[in-house]
Write a structure and sequence with these properties.
120 residues, mainly alpha, 434 Repressor (Amino-terminal Domain), 7 helices, 67% helix, extended, DNA-binding, DNA binding, Cro/C1-type_HTH, DBD_HTH
């Protein structure tokens, strides 16, 4: 007897992969070269929701810092979203002076939000 299995729709994950690739300013060809696969395969995953092999899936999410928790466990809050992982990756590439600027910017945003709440 064949069991009925609902196939996972990879379209949202494919879009997240595309967004992460673009945020890293990486072309499909560059990513494909890095992974030693065809750019068409990446395009199919990103645009058509093609199911990647487990190995390709793993490489994509680790290279692009994509959190899969939000896709597989949507009811649970992820430890780190894809956006947070990508920001962490960018911060890792910065030197001390850059981090001083980023810290001051983050504090400024926090203060502006606090002032906004106080006014309302």
């Amino acid at each position: 007897m064949k069991r009925k299995v609902e196939k996972y729709d990879f379209k949202a994950l494919g879009q997240a992969i595309k967004d992460a690739r673009n945020s890293k300013e990486m072309s499909r060809n560059q990513l494909a070269d890095k992974m030693n696969i065809a750019p068409r395969y990446i395009a199919s995953i990103e645009n058509s929701g093609q199911h990647p092999s487990l190995q390709i899936f793993y490489e994509l999410v680790t290279i692009l810092d994509v959190s899969v928790d939000q896709f597989f466990f949507p009811d649970k809050e992820a430890n780190k979203s894809s956006q947070r992982r990508q920001l962490d990756s960018l911060l890792d590439e910065m030197d001390g002076k850059d981090l001083v600027i980023i810290t001051a910017t983050a504090k400024g945003i926090k203060e502006a939000k606090s002032d906004e709440r106080t006014e309302n």
